From TrEMBL:
Domain of life: Bacteria
First and last residue of the signal peptide: none
The name this protein goes by in its record: MBL fold metallo-hydrolase
Annotated family: Belongs to the metallo-beta-lactamase superfamily. Class-B beta-lactamase family.
All residue ranges annotated as the Metallo-beta-lactamase domain in the record: 32-220
Amino acid sequence: MKRARPEDWYRVEKRSHDVTYICEPHIEEFYRCNMWHIRGRERDMLVDSGMGVVSLRDWVPLVTERDLTAVASHTHFDHIGCHHEFPDRCVHEAEAHILADPTNAATLADPYVTDEIFTRLPPLPYSSETYRLKRAPATRLLADGDMIDLGDRAFEVIHTPGHSPGGIALWEAATGILFSGDIVYDGPLIEDTYHADAEDYHRSMVRLYDLPVEIVHGGHFPSYGRARHRQIIKDWLDARERG
């Protein structure tokens, strides 16, 4: 398999409300994390940081322009790979130990990280056999109801366990923007990780159903609006009720 050049590893797309989408296009879509950069008046925020196989700070200048808070929606390998590059790091308290010691087992890098998840391999010296995440101990622990303040905009932390114990979504009531992480997105949802919990997942979906979203930026797959948000959750809940 061919290797990508580091300058081609990331794709960056501007969205509305000073939100920028960042992804790693040479990873298969199912495994490809959506990273979200949000501009505020006093500081910026980055939701998730990809696999960490190519430096975000070196190749995405946007993330170095201003003070930035790096938030982990949860601590699976595809979401926290570059968190160590940022001095201000937030994670829910239930997964702080994983961010501080991100073993391949705890982050699901085992068994998912193989050459098969790529359409082009990362540049040398990357090797799937030696892939490891770097420690990135949190500088702030998050809990349900906390606020992340960027100066002129604020995001409420919604604890959404189910996919993992410390999963969170970030809700900006003023714009109706929800960064949902991996609890809900427009694609196959993962409910069978080693630390998933079916009852927690159900409670999180019920909680998010009535949120008056305008747009949902998930951890994977394309963004979507309110009608699709409610449909995804309704279909999920109906399927669980049918058993």
